[in-house]
């Protein structure tokens, strides 16, 4: 939003997520590292440019992007080094120290290589746990809370018909 002046959180991860999923946007804001190896953490793949004048063209490019300009499975070549773990499909609260976050993988199934279906409401997990101890127990029993990923995609933009209907 244009009136926003600050953003909190670990922005490097957000930045890298944008680079991986919207490669057409990267042409003006970053470049691939020449020394990157798939053994390295994925964020080291990118070398951002330090130019503050990119906001307006970046917004314009983002507004004009279509489904073909999105990389739905950006980590495919990285999977042999960092295999997919079923725990990634855990749906519920996760925490880092005193901070707790809702983890909702059913909202981004395409990124996991599955057909996108209608995700559950984020409100379904609110109130499921109230203490850090309850969150820890829920996570240690993550297999009970794993999202049914469903069908594997054949084309990156595959989604269930009812998913597109729910967006309208």
UniProtKB/TrEMBL annotation:
Residues 2-149 form the Aminotransferase-like plant mobile domain. Pfam families: PMD. InterPro entries: AminoTfrase-like_pln_mobile, MAIN-like. This is Protein MAINTENANCE OF MERISTEMS-like. GO terms for biological process: meristem maintenance. It comes from Cicer arietinum (Chickpea). It comes from the Eukaryota.
